């Protein structure tokens, strides 16, 4: 949006920041007007704490705000807009560091699968003990989890003590790190000392990503979950595993990620990049279901990986991802997700906002 209608992009940021809570929290959904079907089937009530605000959820999403702010500035050079909003965005990142890092390892914990933005990804079967990878079982666990959180008024202390779901996700933390890096760049125009401090903060996060998520045996990144003060790896190759490529990481990691990405046994399908490696037993179902993120291709994750390829000067691979991604939209439209083999969309939502990121690849 910043490339075509920057004024709309700025309003979008300001609208999101308008519901920011005093502690810095920003929700993943704002309910402006409830549709009739939402009133008849109030799925959302479990994700809301009416004692705080009935019009916002209690969950977060991957923190793209810093990245978005930088994109807007690069397009508009509107320093006044940045000065008016950067401290609020920083406040959100401070919230994540303060409230969502109970083990103080510089990595943010998510407390529901939905907070990852990849709701039913099979990596989340593991913390729930779902060894069969039946998505219906994970869905039932999520329903029970939300009931408990609702009962506890979404109190983070109780949630982390319960160890029901405490996950440090690779993609979420890679986006978190990139957002901090973006804030540091923006602060160079406003406060150089703060810019330096935030750059050091982003470097600490990146170091933790490389140390804690890297799996030497498989030469890929895996997320981690916590249970009763112990840490466990979630060894399923998903699109999340590739996300550190968006960061300034040593070439040995980039080379390994590209080997996985270009393998026809893993992520290189007719319409890449599938959200789960095709050689995983947990791959699927795909487009004829609402158990999403179990192998389908998504434009927003393709965009992030493409940005990473550009950053690492892997121009040939960038052009391939660009061509394949644009061909998806030309074939099926701006849809929520796509079959990685046929490019069809099945039960996906149409006219889906995330998929318009493909326009940035033109």
UniProtKB/TrEMBL annotation:
**Alphabetically ordered keywords of this record:** Glycosidase, Hydrolase
What's one GO BP annotation on this UniProt entry? oligosaccharide metabolic process
Name the Pfam families on file.
Answer: MGH1-like_GH (PF22422)
Mind listing the GO molecular function terms for this protein? Glc3Man9GlcNAc2 oligosaccharide glucosidase activity
Record-annotated Mannosylglycerate hydrolase MGH1-like glycoside hydrolase domain positions: 2-355
Entry annotated with the keyword Hydrolase: yes
At the top level of its lineage, which domain of life is listed? Bacteria
Task: Say which family it is in.
Answer: Belongs to the glycosyl hydrolase 63 family.
Question: What's this protein's name?
Answer: Mannosylglycerate hydrolase MGH1-like glycoside hydrolase domain-containing protein
């Amino acid at each position: 949006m910043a490339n075509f209608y920057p004024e709309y992009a700025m309003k979008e940021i300001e609208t999101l920041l308008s519901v920011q809570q005093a502690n810095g929290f920003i929700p993943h959904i704002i309910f402006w007007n409830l549709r009739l079907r939402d009133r008849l089937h109030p799925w959302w009530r479990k994700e809301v704490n009416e004692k705080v605000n009935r019009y916002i959820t209690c969950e977060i999403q991957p923190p793209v705000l810093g990245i978005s702010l930088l994109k807007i500035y690069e397009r508009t050079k509107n320093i006044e807009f940045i000065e008016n909003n950067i401290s609020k965005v920083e406040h959100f990142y401070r919230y994540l560091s303060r409230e969502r890092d109970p083990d103080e390892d510089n990595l943010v914990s998510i407390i529901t699968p939905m907070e990852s933005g990849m709701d039913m990804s099979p990596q989340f079967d593991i913390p729930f003990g779902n060894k069969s990878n039946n998505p219906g079982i994970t869905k039932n666990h999520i329903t029970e989890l939300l009931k408990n959180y609702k009962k506890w008024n979404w109190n983070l202390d109780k949630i982390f003590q319960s160890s029901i779901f405490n996950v440090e996700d690779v993609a979420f933390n890679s986006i978190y790190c990139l957002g901090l890096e973006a804030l540091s760049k923006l602060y160079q125009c406003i406060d150089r000392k703060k810019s330096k401090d935030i750059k050091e903060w982003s470097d600490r996060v990146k170091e933790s990503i490389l140390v804690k998520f890297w799996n030497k045996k498989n030469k890929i990144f895996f997320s981690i979950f916590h249970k009763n003060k112990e840490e466990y790896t979630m060894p399923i190759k998903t699109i999340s595993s590739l996300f550190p490529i968006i960061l300034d990481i040593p070439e040995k990691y980039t080379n390994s990620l590209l080997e996985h990405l270009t393998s026809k046994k893993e992520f290189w399908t007719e319409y890449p990049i599938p959200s789960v490696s095709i050689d995983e037993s947990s791959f699927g179902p795909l487009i004829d279901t609402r158990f999403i993120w179990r192998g389908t291709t998504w434009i927003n994750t393709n965009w992030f990986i493409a940005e990473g390829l550009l950053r690492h000067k892997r121009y040939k691979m960038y052009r391939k991802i660009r061509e394949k991604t644009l061909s998806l939209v030309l074939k099926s439209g701006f849809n929520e997700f796509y079959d990685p083999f046929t490019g069809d969309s099945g039960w996906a939502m149409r006219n889906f906002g995330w998929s318009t990121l493909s326009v940035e690849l033109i």
